[in-house]
Structure formats: structure tokens, C-alpha cells
Fold:
Amino acid sequence: MSQPDLAFIQLEQAGGCFFFKPEFSLALFSQKNLHHFHDSKFFGQKVVGFWAWLDSNQRPIGYETLTWARLLRETPASTLAQLAGVSKQYVSQVKQGQRPPSERLIQALLQLLQLHHKPSFPNQAPTDTSVEKALSLFLQSRREGISPETIREYRLILGKALKVLGLAPSTIDINIYLRSLTCSPGGKYGYFKDLRAFYRWLYSPRAGLGFNPTDNPITWVDPPKRPKLILPSFSREQVLFLIDTVNSNRDKAIIAVLAESGLRLTELANVKEKDINWRIRTIRTIGKGSKEGYAPFGTLSEQYLRAWLQEYQPNGDTIWGLNKWGIESMLERLRNKTGLPCNPHTFRRTFACLLRKAGIDCLTIKDLGRWESVEMVQRYTASITFFDSLKLYQAPLSRDESAVETGGEVCNVELT
Structure:
């Protein structure tokens, strides 16, 4: 590179951007990075070397319109770290202007630039492919047995998001859209999860729509962070209080079964008399993804189930005489009456937490509650404390001694 070429370098005061040539905006650094350019060694190795690299490669169409400062700012540090093979801490320091970018990081940024601006835009949607058509094909491609609730969620969330993003957004576009949402962090993660499923399908050969898999914009989008909240669960005494609060044997049976079996709402609502095995106290279920499974229940649930079925004859239908909306309405009335968070998920967490408090390991709880992973059990039992576990502790070298006294007894697995 000649000295005249270097003379084109100037600072755009308004945006803190660098121009390598008047027509090409290389907004790689914020104004905080200026002090690095006083080091002539860094100047020669990094800036000149990078410009020479650009000169030896075809510049993509639209290259001059991309703001590099925005690219560096908007791309998550973890994404750049993974792409460049450097530490996340180092990338954060570069973002803050504390350290100069390495050659590997510059290469990673250029790779992202090329991802966003291809010369012929091969990831552009074919002219005969509309958002509505792609969404319809995506929903049809979902595996057999997927729940209607999941389909409705896809249709609602993707219907909103794709009106803004379209079929060929950039990674930055998706990041900006997710940050613009006003819903909770959990809601933003739901949008990300559905967008990830859609774009992975769209940019795969399964879609058959001509999108290049290497252009998938969701690849470098980090999932929104979800706060690690400790969600509520009931104690054994609270569950017994709720059972005493309701009047009918049906409602008592619903509460007891929810707490002792960990059934999901749809699973509970679909229970038929033929699904109940009284001898081993299990209920056959068809769970998420149309998977067959079995849920246990205890003697208290059996007591109220038998009492209710003496009053009500389902005649081959579900045993409650209610659909899931009716069960939710009953629980909502109970919440208003008691002030306790009476919803199916709280009872499912209660099922897992009571088992944990009784000394049951997470792998066994996963099987009993039909969770996909032990990590899910750990999320559901986040309210379990050190002192809950301490009640079960016995010193490994002192097994002949009494258990540690902690001021409470280990609760029984059953509610009786």
C-alpha cells in the first residue's frame, strides 16, 4: 500500500468511523480505539495488512454501505470469539476500545461482512416464494404428533416476526429485532427459539426453496439471556391446605393427582378410566410429541379418585367431565381464593421438589416426571436449598452415627 492510499484514512467525527478510501466505510473502531493508531507498528501490521487483504479479494456489493462499528457493536462477543477462535473477554476489551483487534478478529469481522453482503445475494428469496408460503410449508414440515399448541405458537410468533424480518435478514437484523421486543426475557427467548427452528429449516435442503445453508443468518445469533428465576412450588402442607379448601371430590382429586403425579395440564385433562392401573398406582399418558408414558400417584390421590368415580360415570370419556380450560378455571378460582399460585406448572414443580426433598435423585425424577433431560429437572427444582439437602446428609465416614439434626424431618414422597 502506498502513502497516498494511507492518506485517505480519516475519522468521521459524527460516527467515529474510519474510511480506508472515501467510497468505502470501514467503521471498525470507535473513537476509543484512536490511541492504538499512534503505535506505528500496530498501524503497519493491522491496518495496512487488512487493506492489502481487501485489495486481494473481491469486495462484495454493498460493502461500502455496511457500518463496521455497528457490526462490531451489534455482534455478540461470544459469537465473535467463537468465529475468531479467541476469548470472549478479549473481544469485550476490543469492543470497549481497551485493546487493538487481532488479525484473527479482523478476519472474523470480514467473514461476517461477506455473510451479510454477498455479491449476488444468493440467500435472497426466490421471486415466487412469499413469507406466507414459506411459513405454511414450514408448519406442514413439522413432525407428526406435534401438539396443536406448538403449531399455534409457531403461527403467532413467526407470523409477527417474519413480517419484519422476511426470509433473508442479516444476523444484525435479527439481533436488533429481538432487542426491540418489549416482552419478558423468557418471551424473547421464545421468539428466538421459533425463529431458529424456522431459519434452520428454510436454509436446509429439506425446504427445497434454494437457500444456501452457509448463508443462514440465525447461525451467529446468540440466544437472549434468560434470568435464572426461582419459580414457586408448594410445600406438602400447602397442597393439603388446597385440598381442604375445595369442596368437591373431583377438585380434591385433581389437586392431589397434579401434586403426586406431575402430570401436565393436557395429560391430566385427557385421563380416562381405562388409563388408570389401580394395582401399581400409575396413569397411562400421551405426553408431548405424542409420546406414551406412565405417571405414578399415591394413596391420597387414589382415595379421592375412587370417591369421585363413585359419583361420576365417564362412560369411556375423560374422568373429570371437564376439558383443560375447565380445569384451569377451577385452579384460577382457587388462586383468587387462597392467594397461592395455583397453576399446573406450579404443581409440576411441586412434584419434583417434594421428591427431591425426599431424597430421590434427579435422574429418577426425570423418568417419573417424563422430562427430556436432567437439566430440566434441575430447573424445576431450583427452589431446593442447601439446607433441604442437608436434612438427607449422613457423613460418609460416620454412618453409624445419627443423621444430622436440622430441625425438621424428611417429608414423605406421598401426601398422606
